[in-house]
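User: Hey, quick favor. My workstation is busy. Could you predict this chain's structure for me?
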Amino acid sequence: MDLGLSGRTALVCSSTGGLGEAIARKLAEEGADTVVCGRRGHRAKEIAGELPSAVGVEADLLTEGGPRKLYESTVAAFGPPDVLVLNGPGPRPAPATGISAGDVDDALDATVRRHIELVALALPAMRERGWGRILAVGSSGIVAPLPNLALSNLGRAALAAYLKSLAAEVAAEGVTVNLLLPGRISTDRTTTVDAANAERSGRTVAEVARESAAAIPAGRYGRPSEFAAVAAFLCGAPASYVTGTAVRCDGGLVRTL
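Assistant: No problem, here it is.
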């Protein structure tokens, strides 16, 4: 299937590893001029050097001015982004009874505020062109809140509500806005969460991972490449009538419709 991404500009946040890297690689494979970015500037440049048409940018979205710096670097390299993939590390694991107001502020800053700043920068050019894709890497926690991830649950749910509102406002202008929700995908983040659960429960990380995999109908953790393939479709031309929705790529983990 031709996704119609050849010659499009794609900005993928936090793409020096994990799901972000997998998405950046897939979009570049589909012909998009791709901006790889993250705090590890050297790694961003390494990945970009392996792709057909890409640049690596050192960027920290959590700093003041970070979103604008990243956006301007994208414009300087390839022009305003046609595709914006919102992605970033989640807040620390914590039960709902173990968080403070300051923790909530930090979680919302990382998972909501900076992404909204970046959307505000990228959206005008998309609306002017009559074509754009905004895709956020979310969490199944917005459908079924995850234990010991209270900060992530609340932050990602807030971003989902904003994006759902935005989708209705820009749909008629050719801009789609969606979320893609991973289940248990094999990344460093998954390992961190498994380690936290192991420490909390007094088990080994291997035991936690086996138990987690057994709870997934597919019987295993997902591969980043599988997740990236769904992301690329949602960012492509054939998905022009898909907007305002949250798509799950989780091997059947979440049992609700």
